[in-house]
């Protein structure tokens, strides 16, 4: 019995992790052609046709009514658009 490992002729070595990462990075940058920023999504509610988003002096998200100029808080995670809908409903 021989203690040497048997070699298989014509065998192919599997790609290393760094080879597969490089090839994936090259193909994704070639197909997308972007700089990594997300595409802006359109607003999902009709409220934004009546209001304009602004940034105040404290860097907080605010919105301003297009008709009367009143300002409201509009942070998507804290405030939402319910108060804006209520305000629009109070006109009619």
TrEMBL record:
One of its GO terms (molecular function) is sequence-specific double-stranded DNA binding. Keywords: Metal-binding, Zinc, Zinc-finger. It comes from the Eukaryota. InterPro entries: Cuticle_assoc_protein, Znf_BED. Residues 13-34 have a biased composition (Polar residues). Residues 1-43 are annotated as: Disordered. Residues 46-79 form the BED-type domain. Signal peptide: none annotated. GO terms for cellular component: nucleus. GO terms for biological process: regulation of transcription by RNA polymerase II. This is BED-type domain-containing protein. It comes from Gossypium schwendimanii.
